[in-house]
Amino acid sequence: MAETKKVVLAYSGGLDTSVILKWLQDEYSCEVVTFTADLGQGEEVEPARAKAQALGIKEIYIDDLREEFVRDYVFPMFRANAIYEGEYLLGTSIARPLISKRLVEIAKETGAYAVSHGATGKGNDQVRFELGAYALQPDIKIIAPWREWDLNSRQKLLAYADSHGIAVEKKKGKASPYSMDANLLHISYEGGILENPWSEPEEDMWLWSVSAENAPDQATYMELTYAKGDITEIDGVAHSPAEVLTKLNTIGGANGIGRLDIVENRYVGMKSRGCYETPGGTIMMRAHRAIESLTLDREVAHLKDELMPRYATLVYNGYWWSPERLMLQTMIDESQLRVNGKVRLKLYKGNVDVVGRESATDSLFDEAIATFEDDDGAYNQQDAEGFIKLNALRMRIAANRLK
Questions:
Q1: What is the DSSP string of 341-367?
Q2: Which candidate in 179, 272, 293, 322 is catalytic?
Q3: If you average pLDDT over every residue of the chain, what do you get?
């Protein structure tokens, strides 16, 4: 008898992936290996084990990837100050390459010939998962059920689950009308009333943050310590990367920081309205730019800003493992070698204000030159005349031509 083929499924234990699990067994006559990633989504991942076992799964992977996620994905992205279309901090996008990496690794470990995911044929995630998988294992087979089956509604999924004896957890109380995705960097909301871009999100939708109106009336001050562009301490206490982001999420959310409501351009061509909570990331972005303002050379900083939109688009579209993103990352990481020091922040009712920055070893700010007081000859103001005339030369020539 021929050996049964294996497929590794990115498995959450919810309705969609539980149906996919059974569907794969039936349609592909395969043995399914489940992989559940703990990226700090704030929900128990262990129940996925029991659900997988109830469906007859023998090989079950449940991995705590929180530290790897922040250290090797979130922190490098924030060294680039990456922000998509001027607003989105890429919370969902940056989680996908790590999931793809583990899917491929588990496929190799278990001898699986294919990997599978629950992303729909309308979204960005199918692109991100699959580009990552192909970049890391070019000959891998990918099974995307939403592009093959006709179970294209919740009602059909529930009917399939009922007919195949798949237990569906019935949550008490009012079910959320939103499609949500969470990890240590953010939580996203789509669907429901958000499908109308004119509709204001309901206040009880937000799970991580209070409204600015309900935030404390007294400001919260905090001090972040940077080493090579990454936060290593909060208020003088050392933390691991995942601990840094967890703590910043808690403090930021309590001060009404990090809410975002946008219409974005998906890579597949459509516009999509989504809401996001990224309290820790919002603080990180503000503080990182502050320490860079003190320690980065002007032209290096400006070049980074020019390249950042391209970098952000690569992350958004799923090209984390592409040679061009890796090349940009090498340049970005080189720029961060002297991004060391401290930033002092004031958090108040949704705002993040920088109120201090210092670097004992790498500051390029020279008070003797920048002062409005007597600089004792540190800067010769007469030098500016020649500088201005040389830079005006081409415009003066053009102006003379018009006479």
A1: EEEEEEEETTEEEEEEEE-TTT----H
A2: 179
A3: 94
